[in-house]
Amino acid sequence: MSSVPHGVPVWPAELVVQGGGDLCEGPRWDDRTATLLWTDIYGCVVHEASADGTRVASHPTRTPTGSFAPRRDGGYVLATETGFVLVDQAWEGWDPVGAQRSLPSRLRSNDGACDPRGRFLAGTMGHHEEPGVGAVLRLGAPAPDGRVPDAEPVIEGTTIANGIGWSLDGATMYFVDSARRSVDAFDYDLDTGAASNRRALVAVEDGDGFPDGLTVDADGSLWVALWDGGQVRRYDESGRLTGVVVVPVPRVSSCTFGGPELRDLFITTARVGLDSATLATHPDSGSIYRCRPGPAGRPVARFAG
After folding, report:
1. 299 in a domain, yes or no?
2. Active site annotation includes 212
3. Which of 67, 102, 127, 259 could tie 26 with a disulfide, CB 3.0–4.6 Å?
């Protein structure tokens, strides 16, 4: 696991939900239910818990689900192994949407998030992490007749599409392709949903793990999970490291703010792919952790459908 640079503030993370899944990802705080939700991708289930870690429910998703987001009119949008799906608030009414109803069999969906205008962006990747076969797809808001438009590529040629977020004004989109070991920034057109002018904002050095999921707080800073790094790192908008959350397991996958006043940073982790020796040393891999670093988060953007 990666070291902490000298002089950088450090916050500890505490265990809040033990045994959350093999590959926990995409945490979202739903202010409608005051609960934390996260997907166990290969477990084909979205779990739900209260802020104190008490389990509330588990929602089978029929197929591996990389990410999801709440909908403005109730329910959720899911990025699954086979494409985009809408469900209602009871996690029923399975409804594939968009022209990308069936992803190629070599691909599955991965991390995703809604932009400030309510579009849902989700990455795809190869089952075996084949270089350059993935993309970030954009699912737009429904038309006046209720039809959800075709999903369109925003970024192409990705390998392990992960964290997606936006600056406070929505004019900059942040994106992680873990294989590049960087957090990249794009100019983002809120009117069209187009991303351009890609540049590296943060480079993660060899030995520090791989950048994975991310969230953006109410101050505009980025919180980036480090897979095989045992940390969540906070960077300001210029890419300067301003804080580190130390997580006592190696495979940190993503994070989101939730709880009262959105001041709890919830952190997902994974146990998939770890050998027996590592699991013996880190038996709580695949659990959910919590940290209260001080800054508050922002409400999760909802899909406009």
Report:
1. no
2. yes
3. 67
